[in-house]
Specification:
three-stranded antiparallel sheet, 281 residues, alpha/beta, binds S-adenosylmethionine, Chemotaxis Receptor Methyltransferase Cher, domain 1, Rossmann fold, 18% strand
């Protein structure tokens, strides 16, 4: 007899208590706030995991995640719960600011370090690379260093792969497709891959934004966009404090357009909506 439930056997519906256990775990480990209105989302996204794991209930699956000493099950859980929506050149004002304000300030420097903190499937860090490389037009300075991080290993794997369908590239200016991508053929017809020499300039790494401390260097610009909305105020406050400590003097923090630092204490100066700056000293 095969072990585990038969395929057709339905799993028990998510109870309120199970939902609370899962949301507590997501909050403690990833800062993710799963409000009651996310009940359907959790049922749909985790239901697949419960079935795939051969469990009969959400409780049984939850217990497996908690008992798994390797941490792999926890990573899979966050992969299933996180929202990875993103786009090339999303919120274009940040890329314009980067070119018009930040690049000229850095023209005499050897190095420009930028951190994309919740990079999802890679469109954000690649947009940073394309924008800066296009503006430098082959100039050697400053040398660009991009760190792109996310908690989701699934999203990071896609980001590293750098392969996108043609429809995703429609928001890019004419000429960028040819400059920065290789066109797929055969069964990859309609797909594009970021040129390896460009992808190599980006370091992809898994970092949980709510875990304190890291061995990172200082950055001229930190993109932390469309992730703070999932955190509560105390988590946001701690995060912004840590990000500010990773900015060079005079460096910038970009946040998402539906996010705000209103109501949280932080050491940064307001520059314009969604852009903040660390003091020069
Ligand atoms: C909606 S996407 C934003 C992508 C991109 N920054 C943008 O604005 O288009 C949110 C990303 O935050 C990531 N995320 C959620 N919680 C996180 C955490 N605690 N640490 C790091 N990344 C996290 C998710 O995996 C997801 O890829």
């Amino acid at each position: 007899m095969p072990e585990g439930p038969l395929l057709a056997e339905p799993i028990r519906p998510l109870t309120e208590r199970e939902f609370l256990n899962i949301s507590r775990l997501a909050y403690e480990k990833f800062g993710l706030q799963l409000k009651p209105e996310k009940y359907e989302l959790v049922t749909a996204r985790l239901g697949k995991k419960v079935r795939a794991a051969g469990c009969r209930s959400f409780q049984e699956y939850y217990q497996r995640v908690v008992d798994d000493r390797t941490g792999e099950a926890l990573i899979e859980l966050i992969d299933a719960l996180a929202t990875n929506f993103t786009n090339f050149l999303r919120e274009p004002a940040h890329f314009e600011f980067l070119l018009k304000e930040v690049l000229p300030e850095c023209a005499a420097r050897d190095r420009l370090a930028i951190w994309s903190t919740a990079c999802s499937t890679g469109e954000e860090p690649y947009s940073i690379a394309f924008s800066v490389l296009d503006a430098l037009a082959g100039g050697a300075r400053p040398q660009l260093r991009i760190l792109a991080t996310d908690i989701s290993s699934k999203a990071l794997a896609e980001a590293r792969r750098g392969v996108y369908p043609a429809a995703k590239l429609e928001s890019l200016p004419p000429g960028w497709r040819r400059a920065f991508f290789l066109r797929g053929d055969g069964k990859w017809n309609g797909w594009y891959r970021v040129k390896p020499e460009i992808a190599r300039q980006i370091e992809f790494r898994r970092i949980n934004l709510i875990e304190p401390g890291s061995d990172l260097e200082l950055f001229r610009v930190i993109f932390c966009r469309n992730v703070m909305i999932y955190f509560d105020k105390p988590t946001q406050q701690k995060l912004v404090g840590r990000l500010a400590a990773h900015l060079e003097p005079g460096g910038y923090l970009f946040i998402g357009h539906s996010e705000s630092l209103t109501g949280i204490e932080h050491p940064l100066a307001y520059v314009r909506p969604t852009i903040y700056r660390r003091g020069e000293r």
